[in-house]
Amino acid sequence: xxxxxxxxxxxxxxxxxxxxxxxxxxxxxxxxxxxxxxxxxxxxxxxxxxxxxxxxxxxxxxxxxxxxxxxxxxxxxxxxxxxxxxxxxxxxxxxxxxxxxxxxxxxxxxxxxxxxxxxxxxxxxxxxxxxxxxxxxxxxxxxxxxxxxxxxxxxxxxxxxxxxxxxxxxxxxxxxxxxxxxxxxxxxxxxxxxxxxxxxxxxxxxxxxxxxxxxxxxxxxxxxxxxxxxxxxxxxxxxxxxxxxxxxxxxxxxxxxxxxxxxxxxxxxxxxxxxxxxxxxxxxxxxxxxxxxxxxxxxxxxxxxxxxxxxxxxxxxxxxxxxxxxxxxxxxxxxxxxx
Length: 339
Hints:
Layout: E1 20-23, H1 29-46, E2 49-52, H2 67-70, E3 88-89, H3 101-108, H4 119-122, E4 135-138, H5 145-154, H6 163-174, H7 179-193, E5 200-205, H8 214-227, E6 232-237, H9 240-249, E7 253-254, H10 276-291, E8 295-298, H11 303-312, E9 319-321, H12 327-338
Parallel strand pairs: 1-2, 1-4, 3-4, 5-6, 5-8, 6-7, 8-9
């Protein structure tokens, strides 16, 4: 798509006609969705039009916005409309709005991809709501609701609402999966629950670049099966060996067909050679089925799992967080939300 060309379903808003918040992305689906929720809330706080820019090549061809390919979103301005913008905060993006966060960090801060604070260099100042520039850029690898909590408490649209309720509302408004994904979700739920409508236990196991405690997952699953004899089990994992191991130990596991690297390598990357959009749809099928489960076993250290729980409104009585008492994980999560 050429600079300035409008994506299907997007609204063309010429630079100079209004204030916008362009929400960039880096990382997996859970990370970029939860991060985008912070950006969407900040756009409402600042009266800016939100623009979601997923042209980084992780879930579609490099330069093509994967967001409208995956979701039936409200009409948003195409990010290409702002590629030449000069009045931008942070100023490092001026004239470079066609770039993505990965490329910008690789060029300017190649040793800082894992820095918990590098996002501040590439993200609008979240401590203030009055940036005068025409275009603001929001980017963070993780959600930053801790940084904007004070703004939310003072804003009439958000005051008195729990953060989880705000996030669920934004997920509903901006992240409705496309029709293909929704059809696959319903088909899997029908298969798993059967004519009798069996209860469904969802299990998410991340086991590639980050590994959750598999033994605790199995123990939690056995407890929940004992409580709900005959329950269906839906397993979502990024590791082929783990999927085979779980199916060997537990009967009746249902999975959504998807590509899983045999070597246990990280699935989603801008360098992947398979159909990245199709596999992103498969991952979203996993996410939405997990959100529809009656009980979910997961690690809150995984943003993918957290997004699933938010989608389903799954409260403490319906989840088992296998990293609940993992102090380094808990502390890291709390700190990252506020730094």
